[in-house]
Structures are given as structure tokens and as C-alpha cells.
């Protein structure tokens, strides 16, 4: 089941085991159970510290990752392959005794949980956002005996997915009640636990430069600022930004091909090599400039700095039509790689004829029964090479000059309605899912009532050095009026803003 390259890599990781681990597997006579048995036998053959026991469990197939004398609370229901293979390796190492690398604050919060918590996370193996949630909840189970976590692979347990009406991944249930949906870090998930004591935010002394945002622009700005030897902070709700939702990246010069999550993990490691105070899991709500720049936080605290670089990025733009909010995660989706497998064999629609929309349609066509592409303009906007690839796919229908007006259903998406812009006539299409890919919206709503100038697209207006109209406040990346929204351009603008801010500090004496 595992190729030679994977086996060699796994062997290297297994040399890091600190104690014995037993896989307690609940298996049947079905094909999925046979695959899991084969997988576990191949893995246990690689180390004398690994053993396999077959037991009776609530699901088949599933296996727990335990110590011989202790149940860790970590269970994998379905094969942890694809993006979840890393989750499996980390779980094995941590159960063996290796301490997870997390902040002291998060560690204390996990230890303080006294209520019994059973998390269940429904995932797809193509979802690049799911491992963050799976790994975070596994860490919680490893560190606290009151916590259990089961990863459930949706393709293996389709009936359970249908019964729970799950149309987006990762979806997490806590003690049988839906707890969260979508990407989340350990810090963010800990904030949502109702029984958990919240950590107290530690006030910082004023920074020389504070970067707000943890995407490519923010990371670049932080590195360039820290290299100047000045006190640098980086504030982000979640490090990685929009890039975490990008499956394949093929235009980073010097890196022919990578994935969004892998790329930003490497970027974070680079940032951590410098003296940068990473403040994660916190959200900025307002900003003002007096002698210092003050950034107010959602938790009621504030951070001050001599200069601030805004690098808050952007998010997928909404259509703003009836049904979009009502059916979010119930058929309305924005990530075909994550949620596409949940619509296998069904009809879906993609709204948007740009590169993102056409790439989504091409991917979904290999999974779904039929894909409808609706484009507002009289022609597709995607690159020619993508349009040519799309034209050769039989189960895709392109509808041009189509204004999507509503999404309807009962407890999930059942259809969408669009208006033919040439005639005004309305048409409906029966679909199980609607993927909305119509471009990006800058994350600047929190700046709308501040003196910082925004253009009509709500982008921060910047000068050549990244300066805004407010002295001491700079901006970079996709939240600005930069004409092109690309990772490499965002990184360049982050460096520019950091150099501009440093020059500003010098001139201030």
C-alpha cells in the first residue's frame, strides 16, 4: 500500500519513537477494513516498538493509537492517508512520548480542562485545511486524559456524513453537537471550548514595528523588520492567510511546485528564526495614531508601536444573494479541494469564470456527475490554457452572461437561479452544491471608520514605499490597492513596507 519512498521517510520518523505504541484496530471483513489491516501491518513491520491488536469498536474500520497500558484517546476512523498522513505520524510520535511543540499558554489551557470532551472531526483526504484541526485536537487528547478525538474520513463513512448533513470539511462535533466548521488552529479551537478557562492576554511593551497579518506580506515584512535589529511583533488570528486554501502553487520563482500549507509552514519557520514576537489567535478591531500607533484587540487589550504595517490580506468575495449565508457549509462552498469529495456523483455549480473558477470546475468534473460554470460576463476570464482544458471535458456546461440571483433548498442546497442578462429571463438549475469563486475582498472592514484612506474597492491606498495617508502606518499585500494579487507580489510589498517603515523610524529620530 505504501510506496518505497513513503516507507523510507516513515522509517526515518519512526527512529524518533520514545516508547512502545500499539494500534488497537476494530476491523471487519469489508474492503476498507482489509486496506486498513494492510496499512497497519506495513507500518508495524517498520519498528519493533509498534504492534497491532484487533479489538471490538463502535466503527469499522478504525484504530486507536495507544500506549500498551494507556488509551490516548486518539482514533482514526478511515485510513489517514493523503494530507492526513502527517497527522498519523505526529500522533504516533506524540503518543510514544514526544512532547508536542505548542506555546506554554496553550499547554496550560489544555491541562486546565476538567470536563470530559469527545471530539469527532469529519475530513476528506484532499482537504489541506483538515490536518491543522485534526492535529490540534490530537494534541489536546495526548495532553489531557479528559479529552478524546476521532478523525472520521468521509469517503469511508458516507452514510454517517449524509445522516449528519455534513457538506463542508473539516466539521467538528463535540459530545455529539456541532462545534466548528472550517480551518482552525489549536489556539482558536481552545477559545471555543465553553468549559475552558480563557487565557489572559499578556501586555507587550511598545514595538518599533508591529505587523498586523500573518500571510506572505506580513511574514516578509516581519523578517525584513527584524533583520534591522529593531523590536518587531507580528499579530495574526492565524498564520498563513489565504495561501492556506491554495492547493498547488507553481509560480514561486525558485520553487517549481509546492502546496499552500507546506509553503506557509516553511515561511513560518523562516520567521521564527528571527526575534519576532508572534502574537497568534488575536483579532485587531481598530487602530489610531497619537504619539504611538495603537492597535485595539477583540479581547479588549491593545498593542502599541512606533510604526505599524497592515498586511491583513483578503478573503473570498461573497455574491450577496439570498441563500448564500443560509446555506454556507450546507452546500455553499468556497474550496473545491476541501469540500469537492462530499459532492461525488452529484451535480454542482461553480460561480465565476476566472482562473480560480475554471480550475475548480476542472477538478470537480473528475468527482461530480455534472458541473455548471456560471460567468457574469459574455466570456470567460480564465487563462487560455485553462479554457482549452475545460473545453475538452464532457460533463461541464458553461453558461455565459448569467447573473446568479438566489440559492435555494430546505436544510441544504437544492438549486440555484440565474438571470440571462441578454433577455432578463430567469432559469433554475438543480444542484447539490454551489462553489463561489468570484475573486477576493480585502480584509479592511475594521479600517472603514478610521482616518486610513481606502479606495472604492475598500483597499488601503499606499504610496511607493507602502505608506498610507497616516504617518507611521504602512500597508502591504492583498489588502492594498496593488494591481495584481499574487503571493510573490505580496511578499515584495511586505519587504517594501518594512523598509519604508524603517526609513520612517530613522527620520523620526
UniProtKB/TrEMBL annotation:
Xref: Pfam families: Pyr_redox_2, Thioredoxin_3
The cofactor note from the UniProt entry for this protein is:
Binds 1 FAD per subunit.
Query: Mind listing the GO molecular function terms for this protein?
Result: flavin adenine dinucleotide binding; NAD binding; NADH-dependent peroxiredoxin activity; oxidoreductase activity, acting on a sulfur group of donors, NAD(P) as acceptor
Q: Return the Gene3D superfamilies for the record.
A: 3.40.30.80, FAD/NAD(P)-binding domain
Q: Report the residue ranges that make up the Thioredoxin-like fold domain in this protein.
A: 123-193
Any idea which positions bind NAD(+)? 347-361
Record-linked PROSITE patterns: GLUTAREDOXIN_2, PYRIDINE_REDOX_2
Q: The FAD/NAD(P)-binding domain covers which part of the protein?
A: 207-494
Q: Which domain of life is it from?
A: Bacteria
Q: Which residues bind FAD?
A: 208-223, 468-478
**Family of the protein in this entry:** Belongs to the class-II pyridine nucleotide-disulfide oxidoreductase family.
State the oligomer form and interacting partners. Homodimer.
Q: Which NCBIfam families match?
A: AhpF
Q: What is this protein called?
A: Putative NADH oxidase/alkyl hydroperoxidase reductase
Amino acid at each position: 500500500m505504501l510506496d518505497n519512498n513513503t516507507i523510507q521517510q516513515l522509517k526515518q520518523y519512526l527512529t524518533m519513537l520514545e516508547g512502545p505504541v500499539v494500534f488497537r484496530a476494530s476491523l471487519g471483513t469489508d474492503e476498507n477494513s482489509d486496506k486498513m489491516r494492510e496499512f497497519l501491518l506495513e507500518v508495524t513491520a517498520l519498528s519493533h516498538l509498534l504492534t497491532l491488536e484487533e479489538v471490538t469498536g463502535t466503527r469499522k474500520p478504525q484504530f486507536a493509537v495507544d500506549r500498551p497500558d494507556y488509551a490516548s484517546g486518539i482514533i482514526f476512523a478511515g485510513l489517514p492517508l493523503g494530507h492526513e498522513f502527517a497527522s498519523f505520524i505526529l500522533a504516533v510520535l506524540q503518543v510514544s512520548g514526544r512532547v508536542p511543540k505548542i506555546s506554554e499558554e496553550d499547554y496550560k489551557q489544555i491541562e486546565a480542562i476538567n470536563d470530559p470532551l469527545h471530539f469527532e472531526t469529519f475530513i476528506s483526504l484532499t482537504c489541506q485545511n483538515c490536518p491543522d484541526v485534526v492535529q490540534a485536537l490530537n494534541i489536546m487528547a495526548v495532553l489531557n486524559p479528559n479529552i478524546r478525538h476521532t478523525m472520521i474520513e468521509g469517503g469511508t463513512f458516507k452514510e454517517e456524513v449524509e445522516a449528519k448533513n455534513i457538506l463542508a470539511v473539516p466539521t467538528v462535533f463535540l459530545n455529539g453537537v456541532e462545534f466548528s466548521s472550517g480551518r482552525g488552529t489549536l489556539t482558536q479551537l481552545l477559545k471555543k471550548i465553553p468549559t475552558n478557562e480563557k487565557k489572559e492576554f499578556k501586555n507587550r511593551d511598545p514595538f518599533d514595528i508591529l505587523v498586523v497579518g500573518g500571510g506572505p506580506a506580513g511574514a516578509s515584512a516581519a523578517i525584513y523588520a527584524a533583520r534591522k535589529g529593531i523590536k518587531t511583533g507580528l499579530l495574526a488570528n492565524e498564520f498563513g492567510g489565504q495561501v492556506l486554501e491554495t492547493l498547488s502553487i507553481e509560480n514561486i520563482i525558485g520553487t517549481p511546485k509546492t502546496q499552500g500549507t507546506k509553503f506557509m509552514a516553511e515561511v513560518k519557520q523562516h520567521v521564527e528564526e528571527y526575534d519576532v514576537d508572534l502574537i497568534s489567535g488575536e483579532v485587531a478591531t481598530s487602530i489610531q495614531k497619537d504619539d504611538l500607533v495603537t492597535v485595539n484587540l477583540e479581547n479588549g487589550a491593545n498593542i502599541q508601536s512606533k510604526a505599524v504595517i497592515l498586511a491583513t490580506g483578503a478573503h473570498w468575495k461573497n455574491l450577496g444573494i439570498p441563500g448564500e449565508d443560509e446555506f454556507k457549509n450546507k452546500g455553499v462552498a468556497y474550496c473545491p479541494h476541501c469540500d469537492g469529495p462530499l459532492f461525488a456523483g452529484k451535480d454542482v455549480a461553480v460561480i465565476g469564470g476566472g482562473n480560480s473558477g475554471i480550475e475548480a470546475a476542472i477538478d470537480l468534473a473528475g468527482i461530480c456527475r455534472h458541473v455548471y460554470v456560471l460567468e457574469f460576463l459574455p466570456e470567460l476570464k480564465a487563462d487560455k490554457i485553462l479554457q482549452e482544458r475545460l473545453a475538452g471535458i464532457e460533463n461541464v456546461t458553461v453558461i455565459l452572461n448569467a447573473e446568479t440571483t438566489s440559492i435555494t433548498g430546505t436544510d441544504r442546497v437544492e438549486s440555484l437561479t440565474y438571470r440571462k442578462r441578454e433577455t432578463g429571463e430567469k432559469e433554475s438549475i438543480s444542484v447539490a452544491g454551489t462553489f463561489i469563486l468570484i475573486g477576493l475582498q480585502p480584509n479592511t472592514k475594521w479600517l472603514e471608520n478610521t482616518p486610513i484612506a481606502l479606495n472604492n474597492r475598500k483597499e488601503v491606498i499606499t504610496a511607493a514605499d507602502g505608506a498610507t495617508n497616516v504617518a507611521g502606518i504602512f500597508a502591504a499585500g492583498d489588502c492594498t490597492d496593488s494591481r495584481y494579487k499574487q503571493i510573490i507580489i505580496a511578499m515584495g510589498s511586505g519587504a517594501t513596507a518594512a523598509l519604508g517603515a524603517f526609513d520612517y523610524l530613522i527620520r523620526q529620530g
